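Amino acid chain:
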Amino acid sequence: MRVKRTKQNIIHAFIELTKEKNISAITVQEIAQKAMINRATFYAHYRDKQDLYQHIFNQVIGLFAPLRNPRLFLNRQIMFSDLEKTITAVLKDCNQNRDLILFIIDDTPAYKLQEQLRPVLAANIAPILDKVGINRNSAIPADLVITYIIAMFTSVIAWWLHNGAAGRISEHQLAHTLVQLALEGHMKVLGFEPKF
């Protein structure tokens, strides 16, 4: 329990320091002071500042893991009611980890974030896209569609968390809206048939 609390303090200190200055300008000593620990304690948990950043990054990517659930994509069709429930759960986790999410979304180049999130979606959605003729050789490449979905989702989450919308729009409302936009927008254009 104490180890977990120490790690949380280190992460919190690091994130707070990034609000004051660029990551590259932050030292391990500053992180340790802000976390009220010594440098040796920091190094007992992380190799260096980059290791700490990577730990936070992996933790955030892990919040999206429920979207890998193959039951959301049965028989190469999207199960929209299950997808809405899963997105709601992911949004709850994002809201509970607001500082971590915003730290990663705001301080990570979009391309790096998309590349890390791509496996979360690609394994399940690529066969569905292929079923409607969307692959790497089609007029609309599958990679473009997956990138679009990731960019849209991360941008909406950032907007929701940054603008205090998390207090005005519930996780369920946002998940429902995202699914409705998908049904009436890009999914419809791509030829998907919703299954509820």
Q: What stands out?
A: Residues 58-190 form a domain with the Tetracycline Repressor; domain 2 fold (CATH 1.10.357). The radius of gyration is 19 Å.
